[in-house]
Amino acid sequence: MRSSLRLHHELLLLALCDEKGTLAFGHMLELGLGGALLTELLLAQRVEIVEEGTRWKKKFVQVIDGTPFREPVLDAALAKLRSASRRASPSTVVSRLGNLPKLRHDVARELCRAGVLREDEQQVLLLFRRRVYPTVDPRPERALIKRIRDVLEHGAVPKERTAALIALAHVTHTLGALYDRKTLKALKVRLKTITESQVGSKAAQEAVAAAHAAVMAATTAAVVAAT
After folding, report:
1. Long-range Cβ contact pairs of 222-226 (< 8 A, separation 24 or more)
2. How much of the chain exceeds pLDDT 70, in percent?
3. What is the mean pLDDT of residues 147-164?
4. What is the rounded CA–CA span in Å between residue 49 and residue 51?
5. Is there a contact between 36 and 6 (Cβ–Cβ < 8 Å)?
6. What pLDDT is recorded for position 204?
7. For 88-119, b where at least 16 C-beta lie within 10 A, e where not — what string?
8. Rounded to an integer, what distance in angstroms lies between the CA atom of residue 218 and that of residue 223?
9. What is the pLDDT of residue 203?
10. Residue 133 confidence (pLDDT)
11. Given the DSSP bridges, would you call strands 120-124 and 128-132 parallel, antiparallel or unpaired?
């Protein structure tokens, strides 16, 4: 595994409780992970987003390079897109990638192999057991939290990956790991600026927008089902 963490690794680190290793933050985290995977594939130029149509423009994600990363999670994401019978919209791709089997656990296990987390088994109410991933090495998460705070609280200009991470954490409510609701409300303008204009390349902006659309669609569907 590469020495620096990918976006999906960093997003999961924010969402996990350091001591318990359980999911503590992140509304629809899987969709955030799907958005992170799409961002990585776009930045690595394995896929591209094309716009087609004369009167009604539609966007599609298409694979342009099937070279493997030699990283299990990204290779599974790339294989998922390569095996699809037809191209899909960016938001649909985010949903498909977010629904990869055992995605959260596979991302966590990559962090375990990197020495950041530890995989444990925990018994719940004497009825069943679950996998948890407590932190072993807190330094990577401390570094990414510092990057986020420098941008949101001190006005630092974010690098592309940091801006994309903040945007993805924002749309999935994973920033609740760092800030309470009142503070997030005070940061609303700053977050909007980052999400809309500071994510970096057009590819990264498209991926973040797709993740946001997927989260909104899933939220709407849940509300409709509940009513």
Report:
1. none
2. 93
3. 92
4. 7
5. yes
6. 82
7. bbbbbbbbbbbebeebbeebbbbbbebebbee
8. 9
9. 80
10. 96
11. antiparallel
Nearest to 96 by CA among 83, 111, 114: 83
Element (H, E) at 124: strand 120-124
Closest CA to 172 of 31, 45, 67: 31
Question: Quick one: average pLDDT of 148-168?
Answer: 92
pLDDT computed for residue 182 by the predictor: 95
pLDDT at 55 over 60: yes
127 or 36, higher pLDDT: 36
Asked if 165 and 10 touch (Cβ cutoff 8 Å), the reply is yes
Query: In DSSP terms, which residues pair with 50 in a beta bridge?
Result: 60
Q: Which residue from 6, 225, 13 is spatially nearest to 117, judged by alpha carbons?
A: 13
**Domains of the chain (ranges plus CATH)?**
7-120+130-217 (1.10.3630.10)
Spatial separation of the C-alpha atoms in residues 224 and 226, rounded to whole Å: 5
Query: Please, are residues 37 and 53 in contact by the beta-carbon 8 Å criterion?
Result: no
Beta-ladder partners of 47 = 63
Residue 162 CA: distances (Å) to CA of 10, 151, 212: 10, 9, 17
